[in-house]
Amino acid sequence: MKYKIFNYAAGFFTLALITTSCVSDDALNQLDPNNDSVDKFWSTDQDALEGINATYSSLLTDGTYMRSTPLLLDLKGDDTRSNSPWGAMYNVGRFNSNVTDAAIYGWCYETCYQGIFRANQVLTNAPKINFTDAELKNRILGQAYFLRGLYLFHMVNMFKNVPVPTEIAVYYPQKTQEEGWAQVIADFKAAADLLPTTYANVPGIDAGQKGRATKGAALGYLGKAYLFTKDFTNAKATFKQVIDSGVYSLVSNYRDNFTDANENNSESLFEVQFSREAGGVALGWGGIPASNWGKTSARAITYGPRAFGWTDVQPTWTLFNEYHDELTTSGAVDPRLDATMFYNKPGTKLYGQDFATFYAANPGDLNDLFCRKYENSDGAYANEFDWRSGINERLLRYADVLLMYAECLNETGDTPGAYTYIQMVRDRVGLPNLSTAKPGLSQAAMRDQIGHERFLEFPLEGHRFDDIRRWGWLQDAAKLAWLKTRDVEYASYAPGREYFPIPQLDMDNNPGMVQNPSY
């Protein structure tokens, strides 16, 4: 049968070659009936919604929040360490990513630009649709601006001078970091103007859908972009809009921000939606989506405790010790410690096992620290080796808005006002009143205090190294020396290595690209 099929196919292609030699070139310029989707796709409201859904899907693959982006954001901080056997991962936290091996950082770069391309498709084609629902059009365009801003935020923040695509083209010239930030800010502004506060009450085919970008998410990231560019006045005003909206509040249980039990809660401005129930069971490693791809994350197995996951990421002892610096008003250790990591504490259980009993035969593990945030460790699962975590990744929490607002108050001369918003975060975990414990802090002392507060509130959430870089600690000899005492991985830091290299493939294919310094 195979032989007959081959002969039929060979005969067909021979006939095709003979017949095409007798026709004009114009006759060959025919529309492929199997490949006219671009011309016909952007026609209806539903088409536009599917287009924006595709833009979200770039958040779910290995290059972004399935695995790579959390690693890139976490591993350079002094809250994490890695002894991964995989060199590409091991070297991230040691500021030694290899230009000739773009694993992990190159996947992030590629996937973020895939997301930007998809957002640009929506922004280019959706306005041409004769929408039956004008408000839906605004929501879809607002989401496209938000997602383009989010992907570009990561590129500018992690790779510095990068292309800034705002339309569909073949080549995109490299821009300065200042130009990149300007576009990020413009996108989040446009998104904030178009997006609703919530989808709970909107009419239309997206009604009630959780996880879509909102006005609060756009304003939160807009404020963050201002903050990262040291425009504290605009950042302060923008964060105040989020606070005054009355939409967000801290959840009472800190750990509810890192499990699948209380997702899209009152504290969440934006999170990536993962689910064990949606789609197939295959992981989305990248490229063109397949029908059997699931919507699950590989973060849990990558960060998982020894024998329950790969243990490629672990908390530092510096983080563990700093949680003990200040007791709660009831004399207990800061409860965020136990929500963040596993360690040999009496009664500690993980995946239904007693910590001390499980690791008793291995003193190294018994006396080590393991990640608990974003782990499916409460007993419902035996381990993480199915690679299928359904826990949503919380990208922006209200606690972050409060502490960033406090930072803006301090930087604009209102250091006393910063106390109020810092205390809102401290109150949740029962820490003493800061204005009593440390009254009258100077602006410089308050900066250090905010650094401490953020260190304990956001470990393993991709914020710490962003803070270190934007605060200029790597260029401050005293601060850099201090970081080296906290995390031995800083011993191999070299100026310029706070950014990742531009992947060589983009250097080769995009004319005029210049590599980041020190690579």
From TrEMBL:
All residue ranges annotated as the SusD-like N-terminal domain in the record: 78-227
One cellular-component annotation, GO: cell outer membrane
Pfam families referenced in this protein's UniProt entry, alphabetically: SusD-like_3, SusD_RagB
Domain RagB/SusD: 267-519
InterPro entries found in the cross-reference section: SusD-like_N, SusD_RagB_dom, TPR-like_helical_dom_sf
PROSITE patterns to which the protein is assigned, alphabetical: PROKAR_LIPOPROTEIN
Top-level division of the source organism's lineage: Bacteria
Signal sequence, start to end: 1-24
Subcellular location: Cell outer membrane
Keywords, sorted A to Z: Cell outer membrane, Membrane, Signal
Keyword Signal: yes
UniProt similarity note: Belongs to the SusD family.
Name of the protein in its database record: RagB/SusD family nutrient uptake outer membrane protein
Species this chain originates from: Flavobacterium aquariorum
